[in-house]
Amino acid sequence: MIFHGSNPKIMKQKSKSTDRPARRGPIRWLSAASTALCLLAVVRPILAADDFRPSPRPEDISEAEWQKLFFGRPVFILAHIVTSKGVSWYEIHNWDENVEGGAIGGRDIFYVRVENGRADMPWYRRFPEDEYSGKQVPPWTSVGLSLQEATEMEKRIMEKLIQIEGFQEYKEGIQNAYEDLARGIGLDVYYYLLYPETIEAAKELGLVPRNFVPRVSEKPQFTQEEREAYRKALAQHRAELEAKEKALAEERRQTQPSPRPEEISEADWQKLFGGKPVFILAHIVTSKGVSWYNIKEWSTSPPFTIHGPNVFYVRVENGRADMPWYRSFPQDEHSGKRVPSWTSLGLSLQEATEMEKRKMEKVIQIEGSQDYKKVLQECYRDLDRGIGLDVNYYLLYPERIEAAKELGLIPRNFVPRASETPSSPEKREQR
Q1: Distance (Å, rounded) from C-alpha 338 to C-alpha 393?
Q2: DSSP annotation string for 73-114
Q3: Helices (H) and strands (E) in the chain, counts
Q4: Among 19-23, 52-56, 157-161, 166-170, which is the least confidently predicted range?
Q5: Burial degree of 267 (CB within 10 A; 0-12, 13-18, 19+)
Q6: Domain limits of the chain?
Q7: pLDDT at 43
Q8: CA angle at residue 213 from 210 to 214, to 5 degrees?
Q9: For 155, which of 89, 100, 186, 201 could close a Cys bridge (C-beta 3.0–4.6 Å)?
């Protein structure tokens, strides 16, 4: 059973699943506490029609803005509406290319608005970044739609999912979910079923009676089957934690403190770092024979990573090592001291790009290519929305952009843009 915002793998392979739905938040993305309340919210693969393919770019969104929103990744438009004010709204989900035949992944959810010819993204939820954050899908009324418009949007979403799954199975799934809420189970998964527009849409489509009023029990009531499922879920959760611990151990193994480079004397190395452990993130020798290092502090406390706040740029020229730039904490914590571009320190654009590439390759080795690529693209998207310029300003350096292109992290024709005005509701509220 699928619901709007869930993560079913909608495949070409038939399934007789009668599992209850997990719209907008499958059980495996939640905390152990959430898992305890959502024992039957496990989604299995189901049938998809052949025409459920990645969606083309809508005509009211330019190619450039579509590229900035999704960086060429395939997505699926679940629903679309134009409000009485002429504002176009889309609910869009990622398309999982890793599933044979493709699937509406559902883990990444995007609310896209098109107003006065400009497209932006007032809200999104992405994984794995938001995996345990409890970030909830907002009601459509909270982003500016009237109740009537929000209801229409929910109806279109439900109609699309009914088209995929079948009316009767979808109806049974939504009624089962309301029954769980009445038993005090699954509120952190099924919270969206209590939104007025969701209830009204379900009534108008005949999924629940016209006089239906949802009820939420304060005390969870579990069956024997659910208690057994909870026990298994806890065991799975423990296994996942153990796997993460092993991954952290492997990361620590790959990122041990760096030894002193041979070209830097023991005396110079001592003067530079005072015996503190550091990690060489990247190194290059320029055409003029000058050696440059990008060095990070090594955290001497668990989890023993390279992600300490202190950054050092070290230059070795004519056998002498010095430090043209550094940033240390807490001294520079609120100073606004910015990381300089490599070109500003005398490297050519080609040399600076090579330095950035080597740094990125090292981070990718530690964090994984897909995770790094996804976070980088989201940072560029935030810059376009006017968010994070004071933190991610360095992403606009020419060498940084070129390095990301050469490594395939962003498209070759990508041109970043930084908006001066934050476009998210949260940022506007803060201002």
Answers
A1: 9
A2: --EEEEEEEE-TTS-EEEEEEEEETTSTT-EEEEEEEEEEEE
A3: 13, 10
A4: 19-23
A5: exposed
A6: 10-222, 266-430
A7: 31
A8: 125
A9: 201
